């Protein structure tokens, strides 16, 4: 089955689309029109996969090439996700009408509300676990996330940790969030992440609160702490991963930063350091999901492929984030023992005991989100 | 066909207008209707219901009037600065650049060959704390040792000014270029000084360009969010940033829609005041 639209179909849908613009209420009625490409159980010869930028290996032969060689399935790999919210806004229209989005797999982070929302709204499909025997390689810590307790809809792509990075040229070690937010030597040279779970989570840990079980009091305490640092001018701004360059060239002395970015930065820049704060850090996971209209069989076949430890090792070695696949470390020890020993990529038990997951209910709390956006000035 | 048009000659203007009107209807009126519909909804994503929720507007205004006011302030400053910088430039190109006119016009437009985002990101490097501009300003003690340009109001307003500058310069050039030089000669023949000739001939004749440039700069600048997002801090957040966050992060589409209407409405009022002050005939050139 070819997922591409025929010309006739395109014109038909185009005309329907124009009419839909005019009458939002008609949208629901016409929802069925998009069902044409929903080949749930059938294996297709093309996989459409949306992922974040720079999030897969590119050294030949790449894992994607190996997949095609092994299964005959060609992969259209799209690096079109930059931001959970932005990507969600793009796909939510068609999904809410029961239509596909031209993708078999897309990836959302579990420190945003979106994976939970997609599952609850029924906008993603169940995995075909019969096609994913390698799922037994999923690390235990990832087996039962709150948004999908039995891993019926999702599988982790990679995880990452949130901690503090600093530039040794400008400051000594920044090992606590308190120091980050109060040390006057760092004033105006500090950034935090825009993601609520990352920044608020770190501050909660500093305040002695538990970010995996958020209460109004602990949340407000964290908001007050961050707001005070914004008002005093300590925090220069809130960023996505655009902290990397200013941190490397000295515009920033310290930043709340993601582990994988830092592994890549560290390689070019020995002056940069990264640590999990003394009070603890955060961990998050990007999850593969199969949207409505995507081919479950094709997507599940691919997921099984990347849960092969050798393949997972090749991806992890390139992207430098934490792999969710058991045995990948052992595979990598054979080819790249130095990377295999890096605790930012393969965190040991001690590292894992220091990181926390953010409360999934709090992620979906509109009041919290509004308060946090208020701190961001919006 | 020919005889059809011959018989219904009165239809021709409407037929010629039809594509434009259709375009407006599809890409402006229909989305606008949808936006208006959304702005009066209530509920939680994705289950919004149409409930004539007018309080969306009052709530949005009282909650975000700071950012709304800031947007108009920044857009206003950027427009005035653009005008002051662009007028002499356009004047010089129109009257003095001779055969090099097109080359200089190309220079004004050239940055537009690069995408908006990249142009703004370039300023991150130019204004960087360890960059050449800050280094120089620290050297001459305009900035103190810890002073910076990035993540300040100055950076945001400069970014807006830079990004919308060509929208000011080009209409100014067009209106100045159309001025018949013999009018200026006539003014001098009647003993006008250069200043008088400028104030009483050139300036009034270039007024349509000033008006067009002002509108083309001010209106998009008021809704801009890229400059504040990249060059500013939470303290420089503009209404565009709020709308973006409401739409993408909070999934609060009704508030995002009502804020968009508030922005549009405020611009419209500002436009009417402006038109009343400068006279409508100048708006249409």
Radius of gyration of chain B: 24 Å
Strand runs of chain A, count:
11
Q: What is the average of the pLDDT values of chain B? A: 92
The most extensive interface, with participating residues per chain, is: A-B, 35 and 35 residues
Strand content of chain B: under 5%
Portion in beta strands of chain A? 15-25%
CATH class descriptor name of the largest domain in chain A: Alpha Beta
Overall pLDDT confidence of chain A: 88
Name the quaternary structure: heterodimer
Structural class of chain B comes to mainly alpha
Query: What's the helix count of chain B?
Result: 14
Order of helix and strand elements from N to C terminus of chain B: HHEEHHHHHHHHHHHH
The CATH superfamily of the largest domain in chain A appears as Periplasmic binding protein-like II
CATH superfamily of the largest domain in chain B: MetI-like
Major sheet attributes of chain B:
2 strands, antiparallel
- Termini of chain A, distance in Å? 46 Å
Model regions low in confidence, pLDDT < 50 over at least 5 residues of chain A: 1-39
Q: Which sheet architecture does the biggest sheet of chain A show?
A: 9 strands, mixed
Protein architecture, described:
The complex is a heterodimer of chains A (378) and B (285). Chain A is α/β, with parallel strands linked by helices and 378 residues long. Chain A folds into 2 domains: 39-159 and 284-346, D-Maltodextrin-Binding Protein, domain 2, CATH 3.40.190.10; 160-283 and 355-375, 3-Layer(aba) Sandwich (D-Maltodextrin-Binding Protein, domain 2), CATH 3.40.190. Chain A has helices at 7-22, 24-30, 63-71, 84-96, 114-120, 177-182, 196-206, 216-231, 244-249, 259-268, 296-306, 309-319, 328-335, 337-340, 349-352, 360-363, 366-375; strands at residues 46-52, 74-81, 106-109, 124-125, 154-167, 190-193, 235-239, 254-258, 272-275, 281-291, 355-356. In chain A, strands 3, 4, 5, 6, 7, 8, 9, 10 and 11 form a 9-stranded mixed β-sheet that branches. Chain A is globular and about 60 Å long. With 285 residues, chain B is mainly α. Chain B has 2 domains: 1-29, no CATH class; 66-283, MetI-like fold, CATH 1.10.3720. Chain B contains 14 helices and 2 strands. A two-stranded antiparallel ribbon of chain B has the order 1-2. The mean pLDDT of chain B is 92. Chain A binds chain B through residues 18, 21-22, 24, 83, 85-86, 88-89, 92, 96, 113, 117, 121, 187-189, 230, 235-238, 245-246, 249-251, 366, 369-370, 373, 375-378, and chain B through 26, 30-31, 33-34, 37, 44-46, 67, 124, 128-130, 146, 148, 150-151, 232-237, 241-242, 244-252.
């Amino acid at each position: 089955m070819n997922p591409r639209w025929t010309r006739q179909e395109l014109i038909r849908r185009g005309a329907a689309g124009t009419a839909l613009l005019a009458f939002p209420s008609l949208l629901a009625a016409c929802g069925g029109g998009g069902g044409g490409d929903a080949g749930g159980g059938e294996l297709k010869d093309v996989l459409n996969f949306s992922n974040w930028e720079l999030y897969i290996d590119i050294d030949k032969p790449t894992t994607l090439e190996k997949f095609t060689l092994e299964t005959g399935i060609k992969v259209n790999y799209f690096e079109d996700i930059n931001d959970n919210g932005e990507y969600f806004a793009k796909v939510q229209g068609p999904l809410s009408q029961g239509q596909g989005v031209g993708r078999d797999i897309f990836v959302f982070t579990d420190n945003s509300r979106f994976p939970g929302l997609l599952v609850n709204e029924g906008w993603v499909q169940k995995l075909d676990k019969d096609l994913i025997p390698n799922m037994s390689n999923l690390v235990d810590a990832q087996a039962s996330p709150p948004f999908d307790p039995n891993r019926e809809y999702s599988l982790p792509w990679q995880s990452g940790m949130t901690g503090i990075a600093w530039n040794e040229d400008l400051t000594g070690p920044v090992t606590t969030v308190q120091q980050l937010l109060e040390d006057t030597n760092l004033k105006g040279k500090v950034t935090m992440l825009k993601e609520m779970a990352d920044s608020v989570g770190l501050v909660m840990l500093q305040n002695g609160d538990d970010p995996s079980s958020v209460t109004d009091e602990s949340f407000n305490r964290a908001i007050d702490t961050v707001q005070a640092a914004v008002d005093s001018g300590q925090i220069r701004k809130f960023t996505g991963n655009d902290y990397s360059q200013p941190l490397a060239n000295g515009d920033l002395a310290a930043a709340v930063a993601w582990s994988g970015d830092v592994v890549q930065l560290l390689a070019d820049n020995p002056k940069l350091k990264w640590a999990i704060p003394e009070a603890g850090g955060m961990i998050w996971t990007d999850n593969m999901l199969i949207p409505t209209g995507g081919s479950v069989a094709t997507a599940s076949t691919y997921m099984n492929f990347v849960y092969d430890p050798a393949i997972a090792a090749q991806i992890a070695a390139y992207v430098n984030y934490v792999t969710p696949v058991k045995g990948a470390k052992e595979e990598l020890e054979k080819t790249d023992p130095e990377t295999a020993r890096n605790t930012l990529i393969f965190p040991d038990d001690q590292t894992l005991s220091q990181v926390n997951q953010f409360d999934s209910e709090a992620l979906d709390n509109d009041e919290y989100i509004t308060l946090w956006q208020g701190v961001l000035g919006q | 066909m020919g005889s059809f048009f011959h018989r219904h000659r009165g239809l021709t203007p409407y037929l010629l207008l039809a594509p434009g009107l259709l375009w407006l209807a599809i890409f402006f009126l229909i989305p606008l209707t949808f936006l208006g519909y959304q702005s009066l909804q209530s509920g939680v994503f994705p289950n919004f219901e149409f409930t004539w929720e007018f309080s969306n507007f009052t709530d949005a205004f009282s909650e975000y009037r700071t950012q709304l006011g800031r947007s108009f302030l920044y857009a206003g400053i950027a427009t005035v600065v653009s005008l002051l910088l662009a007028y002499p430039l356009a004047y010089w190109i129109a009257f003095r650049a001779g055969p090099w006119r097109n080359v200089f016009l190309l220079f004004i437009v050239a940055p537009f060959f690069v995408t908006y985002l990249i142009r703004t990101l370039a300023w991150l490097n130019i204004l960087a704390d360890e960059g050449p501009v800050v280094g120089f300003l620290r050297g001459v003690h305009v900035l103190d040792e810890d002073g910076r340009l990035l993540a300040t109001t100055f950076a945001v307003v400069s970014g807006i000014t830079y990004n919308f500058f060509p929208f000011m310069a080009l209409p100014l050039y067009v209106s100045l270029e159309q001025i018949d030089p013999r009018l200026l000669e006539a003014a001098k023949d009647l003993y006008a000084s250069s200043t008088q000739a400028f104030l009483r001939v050139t300036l009034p004749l270039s007024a349509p360009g000033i008006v067009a440039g002002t509108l083309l700069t001010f209106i998009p600048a008021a809704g801009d969010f890229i400059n504040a997002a990249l060059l500013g801090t939470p303290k420089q957040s503009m209404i565009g940033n709020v709308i973006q966050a409401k739409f993408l992060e909070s999934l609060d589409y009704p508030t995002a829609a009502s804020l968009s209407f508030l922005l549009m409405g405020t611009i419209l009022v500002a436009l009417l005041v402006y038109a009343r002050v400068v006279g409508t005939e100048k708006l249409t050139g």
